[in-house]
Amino acid sequence: MDFLENIREGLRSIRTNLLRTVLTSLIIAVGISSLVGILTAIDGIQSSIDNSFAGLGANTFDITEGEEMGIRIGGRRRKVFGPILYREAQEYKQRFGFGATVSLSTMVTGTAQIKYESKKSNPNVSVTGVDENFFAVKSYKIQDGRNFSANDISNSTKVAILGAEIATNLFGTTKPVGKEISVLGSKFRIVGLLERKGNLTGGGDDRQVFIPIETARQLAGTRSLSFGITTSVPGLNRVELLMDEARGLMRLIRKDAITQEDSFQVERADAVSQNFKEINEQLTLGGLGIGFITLLGASIALMNIMLVSVTERTQEIGIRKSLGATPKRIRQQFLIEAIVICVLGGLAGLVLALVFGNVVSQLISQGTASFIVPWGWMIIGIVVCVIVGLLSGFYPAWKASRLDPIEALRYE
């Protein structure tokens, strides 16, 4: 009996015990779907993060106020640096050259309630003052209406641009451009509507109202605001160099002493994305661990079923040996059966994993994740199926090949 005939014999045996084959394959399918499904979901979430930060560009960096770092060893508190003042932010914008585009912004409040006629939003809306460069630098896309003009900024015009979620909550399917809303007790005319961005933290990018930065200063009254600075530089290879230039300029503007640490923070826009990638790497390791445990249980179940199969087919093994089948051919037949069962289960598991992983990533990312077909993980999944089949089928195949043909023929 040659090798191909041995394969055909193994497949015939699988067809003869179709129900047992299907049930065993389902065990493997669950193991593979848990492994590849978790990894697909993680890849999908990462794609959502990449999509969210891709618009910001790797050639931008932010300057924000320094944060209090808590208590040092010995009980001495770290110095709490003051906010970045409007005067300082404007001076930076005027003095920083290098062909860069600089945008200023400030958060007026994160707990505003927006009103339109009798409708009200939840009191969790962010009101942000921005200049005319903000939407281009941050890659917000205006779906309807227009951007703020230089006159809107300089004249402190009471106009607003809405995030998608606020517009939907207050206006439904009606176009909001041209309507008037109440923001912090003042009337604002809507001049623009932003495209939906989505956000892993709950849609925060779409739950914002933007107003001209000079208007924001007036709304704040005597309250001190801290201003953020975003700089977009031409050329990716110049980012690190110009970040150092920006750091030096801000130290001069804020009069930081030579021995003093920076009283502000400078961070690349894609730094957060890199942090998420590191977290995803840890999640991937966790997913591999969970998948390994599940596959271990599936392989034990497969080995048990293959041992039962050997017991049930003892007489068949005796007949084949008496007709000249060698122990090697017997081992091959049972190993082929185990591998085919695993591969069938693996293919079914990959289909389940593809659906499960993408559905989970879409739910977590609120529909911003790309549809992922993880070819790498799928290939690894098939290879794992073959390895599981070999490991699970080896002992039953070895046991079958060691049977004495005389005793096997007399077995009932």
Automatic annotation (TrEMBL):
This is ABC transporter. Residues 21-233 form the MacB-like periplasmic core domain. The chain crosses the membrane at residues 21-42, 283-310, 334-355, 375-395. It is found in: Cell membrane. Keywords: Cell membrane, Membrane, Transmembrane, Transmembrane helix. It is a multi-pass membrane protein. InterPro entries: ABC3_permease_C, MacB_PCD, Macrolide_Exporter_MacB. Residues 290-405 form the ABC3 transporter permease C-terminal domain. GO terms for cellular component: plasma membrane. It comes from Siphonobacter curvatus. Belongs to the ABC-4 integral membrane protein family. It holds the Pfam family MacB_PCD. It comes from the Bacteria. GO terms for molecular function: transmembrane transporter activity.
